Amino acid sequence: MKYLKIAAIVALPLLAGTSEAQVSRVFVSTSGNDGNDCLQPATACRTLSGGIAKVDAHGEVIITQTGSYAGGTITKSVKIDAPLGVVAFTATPLVLNPGPTGVIVVRGLTLKALIPGGGGGTGVWVIQGTLFLENSVIDGWDLGVEIAGNSKVFVKNTVFRNNSVGLKTIGNPIAVSIEGSFFENNSIGVMAHGGHVAVARSVASGNDAGFQASGSATVLTIQFCQATHNGSGVQTISNGLARVSDSTIAGNGSGLHNGGGTLERFGTNLLSGNGVNFAGTITVGALQ
């Protein structure tokens, strides 16, 4: 019995040490300091990079106050969360490379380029891994979001505005899902240049091209979307493949524009008020 008590006493500090080493949540605020432990709002970090450095993989960085927090390079799984009512912005790009199985969540962040109008580089560069981008604003970059091969990206309720390209894929294999998002006043809203990109319940307006498929390894699927007041609503070039169904294509210079790929339309689409509804060869596909 005596030996059991001694073993239990010895084990207590070890357990306490293990618990203290696990940091699953940290806080960031404009009044913080990256030299703090960041474990409570009162001892928050100052920058996103500072908070990410303090939290364990798969942990969460919570932004508590409206302000600017700077971006940086993220090489582990982590969640960045700006709650409703907090305007958290950065003019520094986010570079995401958590590895092939890593997962990063970015929620409620505003990435606004220092040089507006497409002169500010890339806002979010996904080199590898999985990204969930939610309730965010991507404004004024050359490339708002660039997605490289071996990546999966899920975009929800996010605004892409004033970029040269709102979202662009490069290389294979890529799986990208976009839902409930807005692409406004970009040169190109969505540029699918490799991989499979699915867009649903989203709006492209005021762009030179709303949705574009480019490259022989590209499949762009558009459903329940609106493309209005663009130069081209949906466009294919360089052997890209785009499929459109149950969408509104109205008020564009050209509605569906096949400029050197394959453009298929399925189901019921509303095409009206465009300079031309169809440009190039448009294939009518049968729903299965």
Descriptive account of the structure:
- The structure is a single chain.
- The protein is mainly beta.
- It contains two helices and 32 strands.
- Helix 2 links the parallel strand 1 and strand 2.
- The longest helix is centred in the first third of the chain and has 20 residues.
- The N terminus is likely disordered.
Mean pLDDT: 91
What is the overall shape? elongated
Q: What is the spatial order of strands in the main beta sheet? A: 1-2-5-8-11-14-17-20-23-26-29-32
Uncertain regions spanning at least 5 consecutive residues: 1-19
CA(first)-CA(last) distance: 73 Å
Percent of residues in β-strands: over 45%
Write down the oligomeric state: single chain
Structural class: mainly beta
Q: Any chance you could write out the topology, listing elements then pairs?
A:
Elements: H1 2-21, E1 25-28, H2 48-54, E2 59-63, E3 67-68, E4 72-74, E5 78-81, E6 88-90, E7 94-96, E8 103-107, E9 109-112, E10 122-126, E11 129-134, E12 137-139, E13 143-147, E14 151-156, E15 159-161, E16 165-170, E17 174-179, E18 182-184, E19 188-193, E20 195-200, E21 203-205, E22 209-214, E23 218-223, E24 226-228, E25 232-237, E26 241-245, E27 248-250, E28 254-258, E29 262-266, E30 270-272, E31 276-279, E32 282-284
Parallel strand pairs: 1-2, 2-5, 3-6, 4-7, 5-8, 6-9, 7-10, 8-11, 9-12, 10-13, 11-14, 12-15, 13-16, 14-17, 15-18, 16-19, 17-20, 18-21, 19-22, 20-23, 21-24, 22-25, 23-26, 24-27, 25-28, 26-29, 27-30, 28-31, 29-32
